[in-house]
Design a protein that fits this description.
Layout: E1 2-4, E2 10-16, E3 35-39, E4 42-47, E5 51-55, H1 60-73, E6 76-79, E7 89-93, E8 104-108, E9 111-116, E10 119-126, H2 134-145, H3 163-166, E11 194-197, H4 202-217, E12 223-233, H5 240-250, E13 255-259, E14 262-266, E15 269-274, E16 277-288, H6 299-308, H7 311-328, E17 332-337, E18 342-345, E19 349-360, H8 370-377, E20 385-386, H9 388-398, E21 409-414, E22 419-423, E23 427-432, E24 435-444, H10 450-467
Parallel strand pairs: 2-6
Antiparallel strand pairs: 1-5, 2-10, 3-4, 3-13, 4-9, 5-8, 7-8, 7-21, 9-10, 11-12, 12-20, 12-24, 13-14, 14-23, 15-16, 15-22, 16-19, 17-19, 18-19, 21-22, 23-24
Helix pairs in contact: 1-8, 4-10, 5-10
């Protein structure tokens, strides 16, 4: 466990004119080191860093929670907006596994821009003794974005062109399906890019799926989630800001996130806390939208028939719902969930989805914090399996992969206890200037077919591949 900067934190939050940047929060995704959480036009963007906490191991959530609460306990807060996400804010990303060597982290930025409905704001955070002013906050934002480039502050500069725009001249061709980890599936690569499998070849991963199904049929567990990785090398460079803008534009119903090189657009909300109300969105059951090509009837009718009408898909979904609600129940006075899952339509896939809402109860005199809830909820059956301990041990045996932050919680929290934490799905880790590692996983139950699960991973890779200018 390590942390930087302790002492009295000060924050000033002032309103911005949201009409000055009609593109909303994505207008501010112009730096590769931006901290980001956005859906549709709303969300938060952070710049700079005044404090950081890191930890590994099974207590990483609770240690982070203690650090954050101590940091903001005596904070000097001036807040003219008073909405969730105003005042002191930290962005965070946590390792999926308690055994991972990957450092989980909370990062406190110097500057935060927020957009919610028709309102927008700017927060300046510091440990310095001097006074905070609105003019100083705007000047700090301009330092991060470049002079004259703050939307609504003078003549705003246009954001850089997205990566996929420059990939329009991509060279088509199938990646050779040869030994040495080359990807078998045909793809269209951005000029000069290469794409290879990661820890396991496709054949080895399908063998792992078959082994997982065999374990399920012994009765040792009901469900297992297996992930795999692919590595893209893009000689022209991997630019996080371009990726985030592409994702936020294409996947508006997802939550686009960016924290320290972890980027993606997740459709799954682990927990959202606003006051005493907690909400979650649970997904389990996936159908590639390309599968509807050539089928009779409307595409949504096909999705409803294949997903909602599938005993396998509904069983997988029910396991995920029970996993979350049983873990959330001890913290709740009341809870409700959809009686029937709905079909969530995304550009690449359809999902069976359910929303859960709970009113939080006081536990030992306090409403539980976001991170305390995450400590109880993670990992859910949607990203691990059930029973959790059995599934977790089998994941470590079969995947041959440290997931790092993939499938771990990612999001933000404020000093008032509000926050939004998604599961880091449909994402990737930027490992160097020109290398990015992509992750995707599938829920395995009795009846899962390795070839179908492999195809599902490619559907889930698609958001990140497209944002890099790679089409599959």
């Amino acid at each position: 466990m390590t942390s930087t900067r302790t002492g009295l934190i000060k924050s000033l939050t002032v309103p911005l004119d949201g009409k000055a940047f009609p593109g909303g929060l994505p207008s501010f995704l112009v730096r590769d080191d931006v901290l980001c959480w956005t859906r549709r036009e709303a969300g938060l963007a952070g710049f700079g860093e005044i404090a950081r906490f890191t930890a590994t191991g099974p207590d990483r959530f609770l240690e982070a929670d203690i650090w954050w609460r101590h940091l903001v306990l005596e904070a000097e807060v001036t807040d003219a907006v008073e909405l969730p996400g105003t005042g002191p804010v930290a962005f965070g990303s946590f390792a999926f596994s308690k055994t991972s060597s990957h450092e989980s982290r909370l990062i406190v930025p110097e500057i935060v821009v927020g957009v919610r409905d028709t309102r927008a704001w700017l927060t300046h955070l510091t440990f310095d003794d001097g006074p905070l002013t609105e003019a100083g906050a705007l000047a700090a934002l301009e330092r991060w974005l470049g002079s004259g480039s703050v939307p609504g502050a003078g003549s705003a500069a246009a954001p850089p062109t997205a990566a996929a725009d420059s990939a329009g001249d991509a060279a088509e061709g199938a990646v050779p399906g040869q030994a040495g980890g080359a990807v078998v599936r045909p793809v269209t690569l951005a000029a000069g890019a290469t794409l290879h499998t990661g820890s396991l070849t496709e054949e080895a991963w399908m063998a792992a799926v078959a082994a997982g199904v065999a374990e399920i049929r012994t009765g040792a567990l009901e469900k297992l989630v297996l992930a795999r990785d692919v590595v893209a090398t893009v000689p022209a460079g991997v630019h996080a800001a371009n990726v985030l803008r592409e994702l936020s534009s294409r996947y508006r119903e997802c939550w686009t996130y960016g924290v320290d090189g972890l980027v993606g657009a997740t459709p799954e909300m682990l927990i959202q806390v606003e006051g005493r109300t907690a909400q979650a969105r649970v997904l389990a059951g996936t159908l590639d939208r390309r599968d509807a090509h050539g089928e009779d009837g409307a595409p949504m009718d096909y999705a409803t028939r294949v997903l909602a009408g599938s005993e396998k898909q509904r069983h997988e979904h029910e396991i995920a719902i029970q996993s979350l609600t049983s873990q959330l129940a001890p913290f709740s006075e009341a809870m409700n969930a959809h009686d029937e899952p709905f079909i969530l339509e995304l550009p690449n896939v359809w999902h069976l989805a359910s929303d859960v809402k709970a009113e939080l109860a006081e536990v030992e005199g306090h409403v539980p914090t976001c991170l305390a809830l995450i400590n109880a909820l993670h990992p859910t059956a949607a990203v691990c399996g059930t029973p959790t301990q059995v599934a977790g041990a089998l994941i470590r045996k079969l995947e041959h992969l440290d997931r790092g932050p993939y499938a771990g919680p990612v999001g933000w929290l404020d000093a008032a206890g509000n926050g939004e934490w998604g599961i880091a799905l449909r994402g990737a880790v930027i490992e160097s200037r020109d290398t990015v590692r992509l992750y995707a996983g599938c829920g395995i139950v009795d009846g899962s077919q390795p070839e179908a699960e492999l195809a599902e991973t490619w559907a889930k890779f698609r958001p990140m591949l497209e944002s890099l200018g790679i089409r599959n």
